[in-house]
Structure formats: structure tokens, C-alpha cells
UniProtKB/TrEMBL annotation:
Pfam family, one: Isochorismatase
UniProt cross-references to Gene3D superfamilies, sorted A to Z: Isochorismatase-like
Keyword annotations of the record: Hydrolase
Keyword Phosphoprotein: no
Superkingdom field: Bacteria
Domain spans labelled Isochorismatase-like: 11-179
Gene Ontology terms, MF aspect: hydrolase activity
Descriptive protein name: Cysteine hydrolase family protein
Signal sequence extent: none
UniProt source species: Vogesella oryzagri
Amino-acid biosynthesis keyword on record: no
Amino acid sequence: MIAPVFPSPIALIIIDMQQGMRRMPAESRNNPQAEETILRLLCAWRAAGQPVVHVRHMSRTPGSPFWPGQDGVEFQPELQPLPGEHVQEKNVPDVFIHSQLERWLRMRGIQQLVITGVSTNNSVEACVRTAGNLGFDTLVVADGCYAYAKADFDGVLRSAQQVHAMALANLQGEYAQVINSEAALALLLKSSVAL
């Protein structure tokens, strides 16, 4: 008798949604609905019993809002991890560096990652590049990430949307597929039906 083949789990990875992010100037960011989008995805992943990874940045720079021991390192209340959900701390933008995240995913047979969080051009981009290079099937939720306005190398100020769009362009096709939250929910539903 042949054993049935079940699809592998799909992990939702939520990057750096901490209290310290709320101290950044709201007028200089894009996707003001990102937190609501991430919460909707989180609730759906929980309802489906799929794995969730909460990434928390712990800065090595004194005075940073993410310096250990300050309330800035705490998760935003509505996105607080539940018991049993994996929390992965990091000290650099890329969560795969100096951590056991890759091992944790591989041991659970997780090949597909859906990534959300902040900021698109920093921690999200760094994590997605490594995930793609490690061979994970990586999806980035465009409306579940956001960025801040930033001057480019030539000193030209770029809007948050421009920074966000360029970071996603850097990732699309090379390291990941960029999708929206509706596509992520459809993928989750399809996976749940297959189970």
C-alpha cells in the first residue's frame, strides 16, 4: 500500500513587528494598512494550523529602540506570539545569520515561506535573499510589508513607495515571487483543502 502524500507546511514569517517600529515617523512610510494585513494573515495561518515564525530584532547598538531590556523590543500587542509559535531573535537584518532558523524549518519539512514585515528594503530584503539562496520557495507579501522614505546613494530622496517598490523589484524572480495578501490566503486555502 502506498502512503498518501500530503503537501508540506507553509510557514508565515513575520519580521520585526515590534513596538519600536511605532516610534518611526508614520508620514514617511508606505502601506499604512500593513499591520492589519499581517494580522489577517496571522489569524488565517493560525486557523489553518500552519506554522508561524515571529522574528524579533535585538540590536547591538546602545540607544536603539530595539536595544534589549526596552519596551521597543516587545512585539506589537495584536501580533503577539501565542504559546507554541516559534520566536526567532536576530542581531543583524538577516534572520538566517547566526541563528538556527534554517535548521528549524528543515527539521519540520517546511519548504515554502510566506514573508511579511518591515522594512521591505532592509530586514525583509535581507531575509528573502538568503531564503531564496538556500533554496526555499519564498513568497513576499507586497501589501504585508512597508518601507520608509530614504535618500539614494546620489542623495536623491526617494519616497517610501519608491523604496518599497525597488526592494520588491530586487527580489522578484531572482530570490522570490512577490504576491499580494489575497494570493497568500488563496495559497493557504488550497493547501488546507489538499490536507
